[in-house]
Design a protein that fits this description.
InterPro entries: MUG/TDG, Uracil-DNA_glycosylase-like, Uracil-DNA_glycosylase-like_sf. By secondary structure, the chain is an alpha/beta fold. The protein contains 6 helices and 5 strands.
Length: 186
């Protein structure tokens, strides 16, 4: 598909999945809540115009320039990847039930154990709390690990998350980048 998806294409994307951008031994595996319909329709992560993942990734120092979602596979060369807690596309993340998030969390743990990223960065505190049974978790480094993988929670970069401005999102991503680089040299 080229260009913006039509209303029919968006409707047809409901329940579809997007392949992970994933390889063994990544520095950071970013994990979204689930794909939105726009992402499902175009087959790219964080693709909806207004989603601030790509600008925050750049502002946080993970990429030397702002990448377009169509360039998502370039992340692998930088030691970065993308997956989701829940694979199926929905119009809104609040369409996911707690059981589905918990099952997605279990699948994510299995994926992390298989691929061994150095860091897992979940973008979405509420989804993280439910998926991992950590109701008091806060944004930032988490105490628990998955095997040898450290865990970090970032704010949801959706344009609907008005609690976090673009610059604050960039700072939150930058905090993870600094922690990731500090642990790399140890």
């Amino acid at each position: 598909m080229s260009g913006k998806p039509t209303k029919d294409e968006l409707a047809a994307a409901y329940g579809t999945t997007i392949p992970d951008v994933l390889a063994p031994g990544l520095d950071v595996l970013f994990c979204g809540i689930n794909p939105g319909l726009y992402s499902g329709a175009v087959g790219l992560h964080f693709a909806r115009p207004g989603n601030r993942f790509w600008p925050a990734l750049h502002a946080g120092g993970f990429t030397p320039r702002l990448l377009d979602p169509s360039e998502q596979t370039e992340l692998l060369a930088a030691g970065l990847g993308i997956t989701n807690v829940v694979a199926r596309a929905t119009a809104r993340a609040d369409e996911l039930g707690d059981d589905e998030l918990r099952l997605g969390g279990q699948a994510l743990v299995a994926k992390v154990r298989e691929y061994h990223p150095r860091w897992l960065a979940v973008v979405g505190i509420t989804a993280y709390r439910i998926a991992f049974g950590e109701p008091k978790a806060k944004v930032g480094r988490q105490e628990h690990r998955i095997g040898g993988t450290r865990v970090w929670v970032l704010p949801n970069p959706s344009g609907l998350n008005a609690h976090w401005s673009g610059p604050r999102l960039g700072e939150a991503f930058g905090d993870l980048r600094r922690a990731e680089q500090a642990h790399r040299v140890q």
